[in-house]
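Page 42, continued from yesterday. The earlier attempt failed because a stray header line got pasted into the input along with the sequence. Redoing it now with the clean sequence only.
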Amino acid sequence: MAEQQQRTQVQVDNNARAIEAATESISTLGNDIREGFSQTRAELQASTADVVSMINDLAEQQNDTDQRFQVLLEEARADRSRMDQHITQARQDGLRNTREHRAFTQTMQSMLAEIARIWQRLAG
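This time it went through. Structure tokens are written below.
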């Protein structure tokens, strides 16, 4: 019976050492996992901060671009309005010139006709 007790005691001691080794391994593994999670969390926070910063930078750039576009659009509209005014003025000037040319032509024709009559009186 002593031999049976001795074998049981050896088995209990072996089991205790195995349990102690497993507990130590589990503890080490738990620490490794916690450290990994902490490192991953820190990297994720840094990465998230970078992404948020990039998004803010892009939003500022987009805002600047929108403002520049609005300025260019307003300038283009003003240019278009000025060009429309110039076109309208040019058309009015063209019509006025046409009227003045007709009046000049009629005046010249009348003058030439009058000169012709005067020459005929003088000649005749």
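Notes: The chain has one domain: 1-97.
Reminder to self: strip header lines before submitting.
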